[in-house]
Design brief:
alpha/beta; 2 domains; binds flavin mononucleotide; binds adenosine-5'-diphosphate; FMN
Length: 299
């Protein structure tokens, strides 16, 4: 798959799905599968750069997957191209008509367009599926509108998943995603205290745009150097150690005994265990973690 960042491309004879795709959940997967079934066409996922998006609209808006995480997820789907299109002033001010003409037709060369029922596009979000259908003859594409997938009696949506993440309902989040919610990044140095109590932890500083579940302890499976380690993860600020720690994601991996600083890790969260608490000392944290570990191993 070729990854294109920006607006400098010209494709032809494509099957394209367009959307924000935050979280790449099971509903999104249906759109992508429709693209994948388009024999004879170049298969494209067109999405918007989520980092500028959060700056343009609402600085507090966090994403389920960062650009990088989303790119890694899409990598193995079997698509030909993934386009991460800038969501800047120009894009925001592009009318629905210009979006169809300049982007869907001229740049993407779409012969087939796959979107969800509530897809909106163009300035003021005035473009919708009816409008896409109306213009399909003029611009020579076939429109495929996919109904929203329902799970547990409700439509799957990025908004619903974000709310569940905020509540810490990781199990339901993972069901709706059809995979595990994860936090990934490079392993950095912490305070070098963990190993002093027999609990070495890998520390990851989450991307500032990343939506995190409530501070607390979670059972996890971490992908590191081609292996998966069951472990236990603390998301939070380590109040026992000091008052002003930055938010971190740290994981004690069961069965690892190596220096892995600077390596890339993907921490897949499996289930919530308990909230983060302030203890009297690091030894007291360790005592509690020994109890948490029993739970984490049972999951
Ligand atoms: C599973 C787990 C649970 C933790 N729970 C807490 C907690 O409830 N409160 C807290 O202050 N720190 C908690 N910590 C953070 C420890 O205090 C931290 O691992 C220790 O400060 C070592 O950090 P370092 O990696 O910077 O050396 C937890 C760490 C782990 C791995
Ligand atoms: N089982 C393990 N789980 C996590 N980290 C481990 C493990 N075994 C060895 N390590 C190494 O030890 C480091 C963590 O030690 P620690 O004392 O917590 O230091 P830091 O505060 O820098 O994270 C990790 O970054 C990793 O390189």
């Amino acid at each position: 798959m070729e990854y294109i960042q920006g607006s400098d491309f010209k494709l032809s004879d494509t099957a394209v799905t367009i959307g924000k795709f935050d979280g790449l959940h099971l509903g999104h997967k249906e759109l992508i599968n429709e693209v994948l079934s388009s024999n004879g066409l170049t298969k494209v996922l067109f999405t918007f750069d989520v980092n500028p998006l959060s700056k343009f609209f609402d600085r507090t808006m966090r994403v389920i997957d960062t650009n990088e995480e989303r790119r890694m997820l899409v990598q193995n789907f079997g698509l030909d191209y993934m386009i991460n299109f800038p969501f800047d002033k120009e894009t925001i001010n592009t009318s629905a008509d210009d979006f169809i003409k300049n982007i869907i037709h001229d740049k993407l060369g779409a012969k087939k367009l796959v979107v969800g029922t509530d897809f909106r596009f163009g300035k003021g979000r005035l473009g919708d599926v009816d409008y896409l259908e109306k213009r399909s003859g003029d611009f020579g594409y076939e429109l495929k509108v996919i109904a929203k997938k329902v799970m547990y009696g409700e439509e799957i949506s990025s908004t619903r998943i974000r709310e569940l993440i905020k509540k810490g309902d990781i199990k339901t989040v993972n069901d709706l995603l059809g995979r595990t919610f994860s936090v990934s990044g490079i392993i950095i140095h912490g305070n070098h205290l963990g190993h002093t109590v027999g609990m070495p932890t890998i520390n990851i500083k989450p991307d500032e745009n990343k939506l995190l579940p409530p501070f607390g302890v979670y059972a996890s499976d971490t992908e590191l150097d081609g292996k998966i380690y069951r472990g236990i993860t603390n998301i939070g600020v380590k109040p026992t150690i000091s008052e002003n720690n930055a938010v971190g994601v740290e994981t004690w991996l069961f069965g690892l005994n190596e220096d892995v600083y600077g390596h890339f890790a993907k921490v897949n969260l499996l289930d919530f265990i308990r909230p983060e608490m302030k203890f009297a000392s690091l030894e007291e944290v360790k005592k509690q973690v020994n109890i948490d570990v029993i739970k984490a191993k049972e999951i």
